[in-house]
Design brief:
Elements: H1 31-34, H2 47-51, E1 79-87, E2 98-103, E3 128-132, E4 138-144, E5 149-150, E6 158-159, E7 162-168, E8 175-181, H3 200-204, E9 209-210, E10 221-224, E11 227-228
Parallel strand pairs: 1-10, 1-11
Antiparallel strand pairs: 1-4, 2-3, 2-7, 5-6, 7-8, 9-10
Pfam family, one: PCDO_beta_N
Keywords: Dioxygenase, Oxidoreductase
GO molecular function: ferric iron binding; protocatechuate 3,4-dioxygenase activity
Length: 244
Amino acid sequence: MSAPAELRLPSYRRDPEGTHPPLDSAGYRSTALRHPKEPLIVLPHLLTEVTGPALGPGRIGEFDNDLTKGHAGEPQGQRIIVTGRLLDGDGRPIRDSLVEIWQANAGGRYRHTGDRWPSPLDPNFDGAGRTLTDSEGRYTFTTIKPGAYPWKNHDNAWRPAHIHFSVFGSAFTQRLVTQMYFPEDPLFSQDPIFNSIPDEKARQRMIARFDLDRTEAEWALAFQFDIVVRGREASVFEDEEDEH
């Protein structure tokens, strides 16, 4: 009688060192108040956490992935199309996954009660959208290119233009958050959030690629931004959202 086959469990693939920002970053002042100062406590996941909510196509509205529609008029600013794929560490598509975005308007202001700097709100732009990835892991949003905004972290501090992305698995406990930046932004050099990423190659993966092939004539510029959840080419994910 032959010996039973050895049981081999799949290994846990860790992202390369330097991919993600430290919890406490000296240049990013508010991390000193927000990062954990005590050992983390592992809480068990009960049935509610691991089974819900149901993130199906019936929960996505007609204009949820087009932030330029659903209002009385057109929003102000440069219309853009943002598209990309959600991939696992082996480059395989992650299908039927919820992708959400939120952002400032063209003037660099969020539709949020905490954002009071004197840039006008746009009545035709809410700055939030969501969609599900398709069978190839692809998502698409139509939106407005966000503006830079001040944030008082240091003298004359301005955040580069960016869009926040949130990706979900099958439940809210399986959520990752990242930011997408735009090519050749002059504010990169002085932004402590962008520069808190130790590895230069990882920082570059946060910058979208201009996509002329998907740019629509006389309508919208296009940018491509893939999100990889783990592995050597993993996207940069954050444990804390920034000030918005």
